[in-house]
Amino acid sequence: MDSVMNLITQINQAGAQIWVEEGQVHCRVPKGALSSEQVSALRQLKDEIVEVLTRVSDAKITRSDSGVQKSPKVAPVTYLQEKVWRALGKGEISGAMFLASVALRLRGPLDIDALRRSLATVIRRHEALRTRIVEFYGNPTQQIDELGEYQLHVTNLDGVCFENAEKVARDAVSTFFGQPMHFAAGPLFCARVWRLAVNDHVLAIATHYIISDGASLVILLDELWAAYADLVSGRPCSLAKVSQQYADYAIWERSRDPGWLERNVEYWKARLARATPTHLPKDFSSGTQRFRIEQLQMTFGERVSNSIRSLAQSERTVPALVVLTLYAAVLSRWTNKRDFLLSSIVHGRNDSDYFNVIGCFADAVFLRIEMTGGETFIDLLEVVSKEFFAAVEHTACGNMTYVEPALHSAAEFNWLQLPWGPGEPAMIPVPQWERSAPRITVESFPNDYDIPDYEISSEKVTCSEILLRFSDTANGICANGEYRADLFAADTIQRFLNDLCAIAECATKWPRASLRAIHTWTRSH
Q1: What CA–CA distance (Å, rounded) separates 36 from 59?
Q2: Are residues 343 and 232 in the same domain?
Q3: What does the pLDDT look like over 326-368, one tens digit per residue?
Q4: pLDDT higher than 70, residue 422
Q5: H/E/C letters for each residue in 18-84?
Q6: Which DSSP helix (H) or strand (E) runs through 195?
Q7: How many CB atoms lie within 10 A of CB 292?
Q8: Of 145, 12, 143, nearest to 76 (Cα)?
Q9: Domain check: are 32 and 114 in the same one?
Q10: Three-class SS of residue 5?
Q11: CA 291, CA 286: separation in Å to the nearest integer?
Q12: In a domain, 261, yes or no
């Protein structure tokens, strides 16, 4: 059987997808990816391959409520998935820290069965939501399961008095987000509903980052409510056909010229040569094994948000890059550095074929900001923009695997609407958590859940000291995120955010003033 396993591994490494359907082997292979010997072996060993894939599937599926049938397709993982898989101990570490998740309050006469069927529709449309990551000979492989009768777990809190029901639901959602997801056993997508009253429900959705990202969550919710509207209105599904799957992206990526990855790695090694880690001044010392995460929120307010938008328009850029520059300015001030690292999330969908595909695309890139000390804010905006677009140009998913791990400590910035090039519009839709669906209103359920402490080896996983996720909303440009509470007191983080808001107010009012003058003004005020 070793020869069969070796052949399956070779097929995956060649960027092919292999699966069993109705007892027959199916294989999707890029042209020229397999040798004639491998093709011949594939034909000769097809019965053995059916047996192996069926056995792996039967051994790995352990949850009866996942609604999954045991007939997986097999595809290679992307470089980014492989990085996540190896960093998290091949699935031994998991929890809320590694989820793209959302909790929503649904007010009105919710049709639970229509919600269940709508979730099933989205899961069937996107293979990533039915994917597990299974180890073959020390290497990760995507296994994509077929969906059977999807079961949505609903917890009835009608018997709890209303004041307590909301607290019970909040605690339950926190516990739900903290439950581990094992890569091989799955499922890596989960949804659950709590019924607080007849017309009051909470829906929680969690997907692991190894199969999804923030943009995937936006896509998922857009399709979920579109499918729900069609079902309760008695219309046929209006969702456009999904032309590509995440497995297709993995096959394409693995079949690319290896020189593509090597060139990107060489760029980063050169760009980050002699760079030093960027740390904020800490309040507490911490061991290497425990991360304690607290959540945070901030807003620039309507007036400053309008100033940011106006400055972006006058400089022919986007608000996201203005805010990224503000973040760099406050980081330089707090670290007292002119040469520092800032980590930024890029959405990774640089091909329009994958804009509406759920998958693990988003990755962090390092921006090395080098200043002379005499810059104006406009000068810094140019420096940051140039650095960002160069980083995006050399993004190879997972290429940060090859960067010195000690550099992974920089503060992190996240805005889904960051563009891919100068003058290019952002392609990822703005998240709309609050919306109306037929006969119900969808609202955000208060997002202040306690994230449990994590016992994690820093050699495997690094965690930003502070992460801010920005978005442009009707109430202004705002952010939520996390910080390392094992390193910083809450009032220190609040002062950091206050400084960010003060610099934003001053820099957008006098963008051609020197940063030195801006910092002096904000200190005095």
Answers
A1: 32
A2: no
A3: 999 999 999 999 999 998 888 888 777 888 899 999 888 889 9
A4: no
A5: EEEECCEEEEECCCCCCCHHHHHHHHHCHHHHHHHHHHHHHHHCCCHHHCEEEEEEEEECCHHHHHH
A6: strand 189-197
A7: 15
A8: 12
A9: yes
A10: helix
A11: 8
A12: yes
Domain count, the chain: 2
More confident residue, 179 or 4: 179
Its pTM stands at 0.80
In this structure, the strands spanning 339-346 and 412-415 are: parallel
Residue 251 is which amino acid? I
Q: Are 209 and 100 in contact (CB under 8 A)?
A: yes
Closest CA to 216 of 421, 417, 427, 361: 361
Q: Is residue 435 part of a domain?
A: no
| 216, 262: one domain | no
Query: What kind and span of H or E run contains 368?
Result: strand 363-370
230, 248, 266 — which closes off a domain?
248
- Does one domain contain both 333 and 185? no
Examine the pLDDT at 29 and tell me if it is beyond 80.
no
Q: Which CATH number goes with the domain that contains 63?
A: 3.30.559.10
Residues 300 and 185 in one domain: no
Q: DSSP character for 148? A: -
Q: What is the pLDDT of residues 274-332, one digit of tens each?
A: 888 888 999 988 655 567 788 889 999 999 999 999 999 999 999 999 999 999 999 99
241 shares its domain with 364: no
Angle, CA of 457, 462 and 468, to the nearest 5°: 140
Q: How far apart are the first and last CA of the chain?
A: 73
pLDDT tens string 144-177:
988 878 899 999 987 777 678 888 888 899 889 8
DSSP string, 258-307: HHHHHHHHHHHHHHTTT-----PPPSS---SSEE-EEEEEEE-HHHHHHH
Statement: residue 385 has pLDDT above 70: yes
Strands in 139-147's sheet, in edge-to-edge order, are: 24-28, 17-21, 68-76, 139-147, 131-136
- Is position 46 within any domain? yes
Q: Is 362 in the same domain as 398?
A: yes
Q: Which of these three, 195, 220, 248, is where a domain ends?
A: 248
Confidence of residue 426 (pLDDT cuts 50, 70, 90): low
Going by C-alpha positions, the residue among 86, 61, 72, 212 that lies closest to residue 140 is: 86
Q: What is the DSSP letter of 406?
A: G
CB atoms within 10 A of CB 211: 29
In a domain, 439, yes or no: no
Contact status, residue 21 vs residue 35, Cβ threshold 8 Å: no
Q: In what order do the strands lie in the sheet with 466-473?
A: 293-299, 476-484, 466-473, 412-415, 339-346, 363-370
Average pLDDT, the chain: 82
Q: What residue numbers bound the domain in which 19 lies? A: 2-248
